[in-house]
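Researcher: Next entry: Thioredoxin reductase (Anaerosalibacter massiliensis).
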Amino acid sequence: MAKKHENYDVVIIGAGSAGLTAGIYCGRSMLKTLIIEQSLVGGLITSTEDLENYPGFPEGVGGEELMNLFYEQAKKYGVKFKFTNVKEVDFSGQEKIVETFRNVYHTKSVIIATGVKPRLIGCKGEEELIGKGISFCSTCDANLCIDKDVYVIGGGDSAVEEAMYLTKFGRKVTIIHRRDELRAAKSIQEKAFKCKNLNFIWDTIVTEINGTDCVEYMVVKNVKTGQKTIIGPREGHTDFMVFPYVGLSPVTNIFEDEIELENGFIKTDEEMNTNVPGVFAAGDCRSKSLRQVITAAADGAIAAISAEKHIDYIE
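Model: Predicted structure:
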């Protein structure tokens, strides 16, 4: 079946906070704009139940609620959305090509806002049990934790915040961390240590997760003593839940031969220019020091203005 060809001023790849903000700015500038998203609008932040540090919401706001507001605002300014995977890109010419399964999009500029994905622990049995007791989304799977023991792997902001959230559902929640202190912000740590249903296993890594249709047991190792311990479900139960939060990997594989990357992240200048004219990057997929909703949104705004300037220049 022949693919349909369409023309746009701007194609934005990714509909997280960076991509949606870029869309809002491009739409307001009367640019013909398309956002392509492979899954759900909003990105990883939609799994955060209570976002307390986004300005304008003194009582906090749910990540999904906030992203839905971004989404509605982008649509208000005429931004089009396609929910599909990008299969191939070609940035070699002045006109950029973005290809999906059914369509080929010709565009004057591209804004990459593909974000990041959760990093695997890398232990034996992990990949086989994803969705069978291993989850990367506490909001999605909290209901599966009711009356179960729950283990969260990691010690950063996300790990600790998700662990506190899961205490509302699990019988007991335990953070397993490879160091002897958390890396989360001090304000988050203070809340965690006051959380009565939250426990900690320090200086420990997970080496195996085993089971057939569910997580039946896992093997952990103390990094200081080398001692291994088998953790299983409590008496009377057959399984438990594991939530790894050990970091994030950029979703940039498709761009490896098209633009310059740095450890998988996209290199840009302060105006969000990549090394290819007309191609910009914004948000967590970009090489940067701080990955927050507000910084991603700022990136998206800057990328949109830079794209508009580029279009004016080539025309």
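Model: Note for the record: The longest strand covers residues 4-13.
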